[in-house]
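Quick one - inputs below.
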Amino acid sequence: MVDRYLKVVTPEDNVATALRDVAAGETVDVGVGDESRTVEIVDDVEFGHKVAIEDIDEGDTVYKYGLSIGYASRPIEAGEWVHVHNVDSNYGRGDLAGSAADRDPAEAIHE
Amino acid sequence: MTEFHGYERPDGSIGIRNHVVVVSTAPYANDTVERAADIVENAIPITHPLGRCQTKPDVFQTYRTLLGYATHPNVYGAVVVAHAGEIVDGDELAADVAETGRPSASVNIHAEGGVMNALKATVNEAQRMVQDASALRRRPYDASNLTFGINCATSDTTSGLCQHHATAGAAWRLIDEGGRAVFAETPEFFGGEEGLAERAATEEVAEKILDRVEYWDQRLQATGYDVRGAQPTPDNMDGGLTTIEEKSLGALVKSGDGPIRDLVDYAEKIPDESGMYIMDTPGHGAESVTGIGAGGAHFMVISTGQGHTLSNAVMPTIKITGNPGSAARVPEETDVDVSEALVGDESLDWATDQLWDEVVAVANGRLTLSEALGESQFAIHRIGPST
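Output:
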């Protein structure tokens, strides 16, 4: 029986959103498209937070809504809580941007 | 066709409220504005820290925002209060208000010979305006006159799964009836910009969308820091949102999937043609809501995850959530609770109906919860430095 409180938006997604508090050690059946997938929950996952429904290698894309929501900053196994501790963004990364002084943020306004 | 009872303005727009605003042009007029609005029943103060020692792009943006409020469809008339000679000029603003046919007055603290004289002049002008406004009556108008503002607030993972569907459903219902809708918060397109650009009505609009997203990403990268913490915010992350991309993909659900008619600048007036518009604003709610109000949205649906006080004095804000915990935690901020469509047995169409009914009621004069609490914020987005 598919758990309606674990929401996978599209079949391409590798995470589910928990619509109830999920406990480590639970075995859940997650609906992925028309199919059902069994996942052993590794971490406690609070309402609204995400859980991996398959293993995700470090550097691989995390998919929700069928699109990238970032990349795994370390390996994530199926059933793990997925959040800021193991996923990083591809946008607004001033920390990775190199010489910020080369950019003129006002330029586009004065175009 | 849906009808509502509203107030007709001399410029042909139809308001759903009948406010008199007292507008400050610079920080040094804020106290006079606040004091006058304290004295005069039903006068709304508009104050801010800008309007002086700004470079041109900010001057234009500040002026456009203040004019947008002083000539908003929900506004009967405006008293403009200036401190002295400012780059955002009080007399010019009052004259632009008068051009729309609205009652308008200009008070200058220096010209009046100080704050006490200016306060008396401001009170007397606002007092007459409020009295005249009170004689106006609501009459029936077609819903096609309305512009539907859309914003999210303290989003969480429920936002894109539930309440944003209801918000999009209600907005497109109004567009189908000939009205307009507008959403904003460009940094919250990150990761979804290609799909959004594909919805653009023309190639030119598609380019505008992609250019603005690129501009915001560069502007944020130029800080030299990871944007996380600013986007998503700590309360977003508490609610389970991990990256700005995840927040964006959820946030975009609130605009539905129909065509994007055009993208307008911050605080720019929303065009008359029916359709869905984007306003280029930051994701900072107080700033995006202030911009959308200046653009002339009659009301705004604030589609929230964790619950929010976000509101506006001129443009009523209807707050909807699908998070059952938030609805229980901040009931005084929750106008519409559609959580039964997320964790219960109700459908997203049901959720849309709940919201639409509230929208029509608010257009007809029903106060929102934040109006009843007297809550509002006003924050003009600034572009460059003070000088």
